[in-house]
Design goal:
The complex is a heterodimer. Chain A is mainly alpha-helical. In chain A, 54% of the residues lie in helices and 0% in strands. Chain A has helices at residues 22-27, 29-33, 39-51, 56-71, 80-92. By secondary structure, chain B is mostly helical. Chain B is elongated. The N and C termini of chain B lie far apart (69 Å). The chains are: A mainly alpha, B mainly alpha. Chains A and B meet through α1, α2, α4 and α5 of A and α1, α2, α3, α5 and α7 of B.
Chain lengths: 99, 209
Amino acid sequence: MTSTPPNTPSIGSHGHAGEVNCTRAMQQLWDFLDRELTDEQLGAVRRHVESCSSCFPHKAWAERFLEALHSLRDERLMPPELKARVMEQLRAAGYAGTQ
Amino acid sequence: MTPEESQSSATSAAGSNQRRDADFERVALPWMNDVYRFAYSLTRNESDAQDLVQETYLRAFRSWHTFQPGSDARRWLFTICRNAFLRSRERTRHEVELEDGDTEALALATRHRDMLNDGTDRALAQIDLRPALTTALEQLQEPFRSAVILVDVEDQSYDAAAEILGVPIGTVRSRLFRGRRQLQERLALYAKDAGFASAGTAKEKQSDD
């Protein structure tokens, strides 16, 4: 057996290596949704939350929350006159592009 | 330098300026809306945000030679924007650094369990989250807001956000999770105010921020 790195998910209730329990799944839920885990860790969290009736609603809510948050991207568009102001300033600094 | 050499060097300087301007136009200018959104999230004021965008692009243009061709221009611009903002404020920060991200993430799941139990979750299922989130995001305090804007709205990785904000990844992670939790607290309050939560079962719970 190799030694266990500190961040290795704990062994889940089914006892297979690479599984996570509820606590670990919830600690890693955001990392999971943000794709900030290794493939192996992503797989372990996915298997847990897809099959755990306690964790699944948390995942569903977190996904909806993040989707709504991301959709705010369309909301704040810059005022139309700003681009002209920026371009004017850039030209004064030596920019001579076509825009 | 012979006149021919001088002529050719002037031509090549003009040529390199032309290339610089064309590159800048193609790589940096298309992100102005994104920079504006990030600038607004920092200043929370339209006029200050506009000034900050101008300052960012001016700095970006002047230091264009430091940009690594092929690297992420948005990340580079956000970093400049953030630095320009900090310099314009010169504010002293006494931020209490947070508990680690794992604890924060777990607290969120616990909080959501309460929301499932007290009916807030059902209320939230019935409302459009966007208007509530827009308001909640405007009210969210720094340093949480920049972390949420960068990662959740602007799609930056933890790593990119860490570079832009000049803090370790673990700090981005804990700020992000704390920010998300505060947003969810505000959503819960909004759902209750909107009258969707059943008053009978809803436990009055103070938000801890």
